Amino acid sequence: MKCSLECIKYCPRVRTGDETIVIGDDGKPVISEELCAGCGICVKKCPFNSIQIIGLPEELAMPTHRYGENGFALYGLPLPQPGKVTGILGANGIGKTTAVKILSGTLIPNLGMPETTWDRVLEHYSGTVFYDHFKGVSSGRIKTSEKPQYVDLIPRAYQGKVSELLAMVDERGLVGEIAEILDITRVLDDDIRHLSGGELQRVAITACLAKDADLYFLDEITPYLDIHQRMECAQLIREVAEKTTVLVVEHDLAILDLLADTVHISYGTPGAYGVITQPKAVRVGINEYLRGYLPQENVRIREEAIEFERHAPRTEKGERTIIEFGKFSKKYEKFTLTVEGGKIRDGEVVGIVGPNGIGKTTFIKLLAGEITPTRGRLDLDLKISYKPQYIKTDINTSVQSFLLAINPRFSESYYTTEIIKPLRIETLYEQNVQDLSGGELQRVAIAACLGRDADLYLFDEPSAHLDVEERTMTTRVIRRFAKNQNVTTLVADHDIYMIDMISDRLLVFNGRPGRHGVAEGPYEMRNGMNRFLQNLGITFRRDPETKRPRVNKPDSKLDREQRKSGEYYYTPEE
Question: What is the pLDDT of residue 299?
Answer without folding.
Answer: 87
